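Whiteboard transcription, Tuesday session. T.W. wrote the C-alpha cells on the left side:
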C-alpha cells in the first residue's frame, strides 16, 4: 500500500455529480451532440420525465448542463446541452474510472 501523501486514490477524483448512473448517462448522451431535445434524451437513457427533470435540474445547478426552452410551432420544447464545465467534469470522471480499473 502506498502511503505517499502526494498520491490520491482514483475514487477521490470521481465527480460527485456524475457518480449517479442517471446523471452520468445524461452527460454521456449530451457529450455526443451540441444539444438534444428533452424527450430524445429521456428515450435514449430510458428514464421517465420526472426522473430526467430532477437530475437535469441538479446538473444545471452545478453548471454542467444548459437548459433552453422554446417552441416548435405552438408546442413547447426543452433542449439540453452539456456546458464546457460539464464536458471537463465528464472527462475527469472518465479518467478517474479508467484509473480505478487500469490494473484489473
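and on the right, the sequence the group agreed on:
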Amino acid at each position: 500500500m502506498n502511503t505517499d501523501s502526494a498520491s490520491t486514490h482514483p475514487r477521490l477524483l470521481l465527480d460527485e455529480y456524475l457518480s449517479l448512473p442517471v446523471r452520468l448517462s445524461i452527460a454521456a448522451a449530451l457529450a455526443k451532440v451540441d444539444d438534444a431535445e428533452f424527450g430524445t434524451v429521456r428515450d435514449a437513457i430510458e428514464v421517465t420525465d420526472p426522473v430526467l427533470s430532477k437530475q437535469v435540474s441538479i446538473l444545471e445547478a452545478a453548471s454542467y448542463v444548459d437548459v433552453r426552452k422554446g417552441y416548435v410551432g405552438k408546442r413547447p420544447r426543452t433542449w439540453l446541452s452539456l456546458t464546457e464545465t460539464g464536458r471537463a467534469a465528464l472527462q475527469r470522471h472518465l479518467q478517474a474510472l479508467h484509473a480505478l480499473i487500469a490494473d484489473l
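Someone added at the bottom: The chain has a mean pLDDT of 94.
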